[in-house]
Design goal:
HSP40/DNAj peptide-binding domain; alpha+beta; 9 helices
């Protein structure tokens, strides 16, 4: 006969795709609910339920055990089955024992189960970075700008100070390791027994767990808050540049430091100018008479002001005038130039009077015309 298999997911009340954090929360809730000391009237039933919860948690919280359970329906010693049911008999059992031993036991004994469990302990660690994008104009790049922003982030829970423990609730012996901080396991295999000992991944080796989780943050040590702050954008920032503000991100875990706020700067296009490195190009079109006789034109500057530019007589089309230091600032504080590109508009049609004047001028200069 087949040995009855337990549904560990059903025992913990979690779906089969539950995350480790969901499994951990369900376990903490259930061991508190089914602790034998809370059920003196039916202590034996509570003890049995308590053991099942521990057994289910031990398997599902371990990625390798969970993978084996999901695949085969058991972990460790395989269920008792008739040879006819397995289709492989003795040799399949041997191969399966090799799989159990060399995937788990040998690695645990010689390389240390504790080393892998240590990775899952709740160490203090830095919070996540938060990414935020701001837009600035060309004029903002001249002297820099301060931009107010608003975003949400996790902050240290004010009730528990980030510990996740309800104030004045204290700690109790870890129900999983019995307060020792160590888990000792004996595994039976085809070759005999293997014994391994590791740090309890529930209490992190301390032997103690919170009696009650913080009511405000539910044990996470963090609460979501809306934050308003002012971000200073330097004058020499490039489009797409990232500015890192230490401590502006999410609160850390279990006393860890805050993450950073990473600001991505986008420069809004300005239809008046074209960028050429730190230089700006400004295109302007003047009448052919202005080009011939000379004129003075008004040129906009990127910071929002204007300046006057004198166009000398006889200016040729596509002449470029360079206004020194009127471009964008560099990282060393020196500004680029503003390049004024002059286009000359030639009229497609003339009045009779205009044509007569130009024809007389052409005759005087000996220029043949149609």
């Amino acid at each position: 006969m087949k040995r009855e298999r337990k549904d560990y997911y059903e025992i913990l009340g979690v779906p089969r795709n539950a995350t480790q954090e969901e499994i951990r929360r369900a376990y903490k809730r259930l061991v508190k609910e089914w602790h034998p000391d809370r059920h003196p009237e039916n202590r034996k039933e509570a003890e049995q339920r308590f053991k099942e919860i521990q057994e289910a948690y031990e398997v599902l919280i371990d990625p390798q055990k969970r993978a084996m359970y999901d695949r085969f329906g058991y972990v460790g010693e395989q269920p008792i089955r008739h040879e006819a049911e397995t289709g492989g008999g003795f040799f399949e059992d041997v191969f399966r024992e090799f799989e159990n031993i060399f995937n788990r036991d040998i690695f645990d004994v010689f390389f240390g189960e504790e080393s892998r469990q240590r990775e899952r302990r709740e160490y203090a660690r830095k919070g996540e970075d938060i990414h935020y994008t701001v837009e600035v104009s060309l004029s903002d790049l001249i002297n820099g700008v301060e931009i107010p922003i608003e975003y949400e982030r996790y902050e240290t829970c004010p009730r528990c100070g980030g510990t996740g423990v309800e104030p004045n609730s204290g700690y109790i012996d870890c129900p999983r390791c019995g307060g020792t901080g160590r888990i000792r396991e004996e595994r039976r295999s085809f070759f005999g027994y293997f014994v391994s000992e590791r740090t309890c991944d529930e209490c992190g080796g301390t032997g103690k767990v919170p009696r009650d989780l913080c009511h405000e943050c539910r044990g996470s040590g963090r609460v979501l808050r809306k934050v308003r702050r002012t971000v200073k954008i330097p004058p020499n920032v490039e489009d797409g540049a990232r500015l890192r503000i230490p401590g502006g991100g999410n609160a850390g875990y279990y006393g860890g430091p805050y993450g950073d706020l990473v600001i991505t700067v986008r420069v809004r296009p300005d239809s008046r100018f074209r960028k050429s490195g730190k230089d700006l190009v400004y295109d302007i079109t003047i009448d052919y008479l202005q080009a011939i006789l000379g004129t003075t034109i008004e040129v906009p500057l990127p910071e929002g002001r204007t300046t006057m530019l004198k166009i000398p007589p006889g200016t040729q089309p596509e002449t470029v005038f360079r206004l020194k230091g009127k471009g964008l600032p560099s990282e060393y504080g020196r500004r680029g130039d503003l390049l004024v590109n002059v286009h000359v508009e030639i009229p497609k049609s003339l009045s009779r009077e205009e044509r007569k004047i130009l024809e007389d001028l052409a005759k005087k200069r000996g220029i043949p015309v149609a």
